[in-house]
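2024-03-11 09:14:02 INFO worker-7 job=invfold-0412 stage=load source=structure_tokens
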């Protein structure tokens, strides 16, 4: 509908079902307008209704914790994880998905890793270049995630030292959190 009738048409539809959200969104913010319309048509309630609901973290007493790592260690973990994904068969998975009829334009095929393997399979770059771009793009994504999460003042951050593996870190957190909150749910 956006391609046929344009962004303004969608924005007018949003104004009819959710004037609060429509006021907030620019008429050319197609992605968010479509999302707001999807929420309305799926739930029967405008997205502004859902945004006005109490924060479940505050309402239910959840606690939010984050792990913070020095950037070189984080980037090394990311690079290692990409190598593990490739060793576990990422390229073969992408080939299989193509054989099953999944096409390159699907949102799911544009995700990290998938689009890089598609570029290799299309002959746009060699495998080493595709892997390096996948690592770079994953590092950039992690940086954006950290920027986003650092704005959330509800999160209690813990240092994740470079010399500690995930299992040992989980054990450390469990011990630390058990000390802080000795209740059975803690």
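2024-03-11 09:14:09 INFO worker-7 stage=emit residues=186
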């Amino acid at each position: 509908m956006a391609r046929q009738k344009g962004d303004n048409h969608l924005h007018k539809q949003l104004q009819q079902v959710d004037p609060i959200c429509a006021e907030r969104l620019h008429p050319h913010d197609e992605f968010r307008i479509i999302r707001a319309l999807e929420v309305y048509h799926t739930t029967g309630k405008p997205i502004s209704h859902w945004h006005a609901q109490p924060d479940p973290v505050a309402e239910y007493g959840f606690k939010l914790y984050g792990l913070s790592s020095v950037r070189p260690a984080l980037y090394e973990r990311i690079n290692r994880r990409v190598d593990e994904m490739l060793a576990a068969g990422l390229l073969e998975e992408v080939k299989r998905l193509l054989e099953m009829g999944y096409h390159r334009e699907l949102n799911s095929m544009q995700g990290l890793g998938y689009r890089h393997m598609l570029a290799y399979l299309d002959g746009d770059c060699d495998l080493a270049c595709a892997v390096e771009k996948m690592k770079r793009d994953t590092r950039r994504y992690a940086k954006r995630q950290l920027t986003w999460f650092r704005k959330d003042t509800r999160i209690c951050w813990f240092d994740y030292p470079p010399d500690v593996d995930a299992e040992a870190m989980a054990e450390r957190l469990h011990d630390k959190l058990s000390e802080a909150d000795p209740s059975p749910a803690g």
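2024-03-11 09:14:09 INFO worker-7 stage=report msg="Strands lie at 64-68, 155-159."
2024-03-11 09:14:10 INFO worker-7 job finished
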